[in-house]
Design a protein that fits this description.
Blueprint (H helix, E strand, L loop, with lengths): L1 H8 L2 H19 L4 H9 L8 H26 L8 H12 L3 H25 L1 H10 L2 H12 L2 H4 L4 H15 L2 E2 L6 E2 L13 H20 L13 H8 L3 H15 L5 H16 L11 H17 L1 H7 L5 H12 L14 H28 L6 H20 L2 H19 L4 H24 L6 H4 L1 H23 L7 H10 L7
Antiparallel strand pairs: 1-2
Helix pairs in contact: 1-18, 2-3, 2-4, 2-18, 3-4, 3-17, 4-5, 4-6, 4-15, 4-17, 4-18, 5-6, 5-15, 6-12, 6-13, 6-15, 6-18, 7-16, 8-21, 8-23, 10-21, 11-19, 11-20, 13-14, 13-15, 14-15, 19-20
């Protein structure tokens, strides 16, 4: 069946659609604010009248290429192409400012490909096991996962714990705008019907990062890159990816595990992978200044999560994300019902699996071929670049729901992001709170309904109790670490600690 699937996947017509989908995905991904959801939705009508295998292969190529294309603008101009590439800005853009934009794009290409392959291996080899794990998890476990992720605020705040907590709480508050996920009651809408569906994540992030960055670039003047010639090339970045196997494996597993859990999504996976990598690093002080591991981790997690989303979609008929819901629509439209019976459709499932793998290779090859030309965007003068960023940001915000209110929201969050950036507040904390708010709230109420109002439901289930203990340990780690790893007296480290303790704040 695998050989038959390979034969079907590599047919000329299927390869032509895969190539076209890759090019389309790269173009849409590079535009700020659109992302995989927009690209796959836009391409869905094009699948009418073509064979099922061809349609799914094309959508898979668009899905993978858009996710990689999202990172181009994040790295080159600090403007997220989509919600999954926000974390790529934090290390990718500093590398670009150092004249290493080609190197950063190489890391992005290699990391995205590695993550896609890891996700594919899990999809075809361990789907039954992972699905069994996902089915064991209920609302209580999902709520504790959100709390465990929120405990990473202490890392994201970069030492500014009070500011980080404020921004995290502010993100949580804004995520609650709209209808209550359980009772359907509107809150914080001020009578505006356009806010009943809440604040769109892509619109908020485009304003918070793209518009605010455009203002910063306008103030700076000149061009994005401070040096005229790139110090390291794209191929050097790709090679450097495979010299970091632990980062690839760690981030790939995070992406897959979050991918098979419905509704968590690539934004959560990329941010958590970045923060976990920062916690695991031997040199966390370099994060935020262009650390290659900090760029590689979210890129790997993002693409492994994209493929991981297909595990519950294909095997259980439960969409792992909004994008895979479009995949389900395409399958059903072609007379294929996702679920346990999906693997009884002859060679079609295996043709789709082969197509997903080829799609990863396709965006890697095309990305590397044209990446040198894309990197030249950093030399564009600001008077030309800034209006283009703003225009594309407004276009992306408007295209999601065709509402001018979304453009206004983009402007407001752009101004807010600019003010917070100038004040040097830790912006990742806001992102973490806003992304996890809906997940935490909805599963909190579902768990209480199942537990008949008893809060003991969060600690009587083994899975949720384990996650609860992990969250407590993460919260307490900054206080436990000095006790567990206290430097011995007389060592260089102990002398450095004593010397720092004797300095006043200004000297420090």
């Amino acid at each position: 069946m695998w050989l038959e699937g390979l034969r079907v996947a590599v047919q000329p017509m299927n390869m032509l659609y895969l190539l076209g989908g890759t090019i389309f995905g790269l173009i849409i991904g590079a535009l700020p604010g659109l992302g995989p959801m927009f690209a796959v939705t836009l391409a869905l009508p094009l699948t009418f009248g073509i064979p099922a295998a061809t349609a799914i292969i094309m959508l898979s190529a668009i899905h993978a290429a858009t996710a990689y294309g999202d990172s181009l603008a994040s790295i080159l101009i600090n403007t997220p192409g989509g919600v999954g590439s926000v974390a790529s800005c934090w290390e990718g853009f500093p590398l670009s400012q150092k004249g290493k934009s080609g190197y950063a794009l190489g890391i992005s290409a290699g990391g995205s490909f590695s993550g896609g392959v890891i996700g594919w291996v899990f999809l075809v080899a361990t789907a039954p096991l992972l699905i069994g794990l996902a089915l064991m998890m209920g609302p209580a476990e999902y709520f504790m996962i959100a709390i465990l992720a929120l405990s990473l605020l202490s890392i994201a705040s970069e030492g500014q714990n009070i500011k980080g907590a404020i921004l995290g709480a502010f993100g949580l508050l804004l995520s609650y705008i709209g209808r209550d996920p359980i009772w359907g009651v509107t809150r914080f809408t001020f009578g505006n019907i356009f806010l009943e569906d809440g604040l769109p994540m892509s619109v908020v992030f485009v304003g918070f990062f793209a518009i605010s960055q455009a203002i910063v670039l306008f103030e700076k003047g000149g061009s994005v890159m401070e040096v005229e010639k790139m110090k390291e090339g794209v191929l050097s970045g790709v090679r450097d990816v495979f010299r970091r196997p632990f980062t690839i494996i760690r981030s790939g597993i995070i992406g897959v595990l979050l991918g098979i859990m419905p509704a968590l999504g690539i934004s959560t996976a990329s941010i958590i992978a970045y923060l976990v990598e920062k916690r695991s690093s031997k040199h966390p002080e370099t994060f935020g200044k262009g650390d290659p591991d900090g760029l590689l981790a979210p890129e790997v997690a993002k693409n492994s999560c994209l493929v991981g989303d297909l595990v519950p979609t294909l095997t259980l008929g439960i969409p792992g994300s909004a994008v895979t819901a479009i995949f389900m629509a395409a399958l059903i439209m072609h007379g294929i019902q996702p679920g346990p019976d999906y693997f009884s459709k002859g060679s079609l499932p295996y043709a789709v699996f082969v197509g997903i793998l080829i799609a990863q290779l396709s965006f890697l090859v095309l990305g590397l071929l044209f990446i040198g030309q894309l990197a030249k965007i950093v030399k564009v003068p600001m008077p030309i670049l800034v209006p283009v960023i703003i225009a594309l940001s407004f276009l992306g915000a408007f295209a999601m729901r065709n509402l001018m209110l979304d453009v206004l929201i983009t402007c407001l969050f752009g101004l807010l992001g600019y003010i917070l950036n100038k004040a040097k507040w830790p912006l990742p904390c806001f992102v973490l709170g806003f992304v996890l708010g809906d997940i935490a709230e909805s599963n909190f109420h579902r768990a209480l309904l199942i537990g008949k109002g008893s809060y003991l439901t969060f600690i009587t289930r083994p899975g949720s109790l384990f996650l609860f203990i992990c969250a407590i340990l993460v919260f307490a780690w900054p206080y436990l670490k000095p006790l567990l790893f206290k430097p011995r007296k007389g060592t260089i480290l102990a002398e450095a600690v004593e010397r720092e303790a004797g300095m006043d704040e200004e000297e420090t």
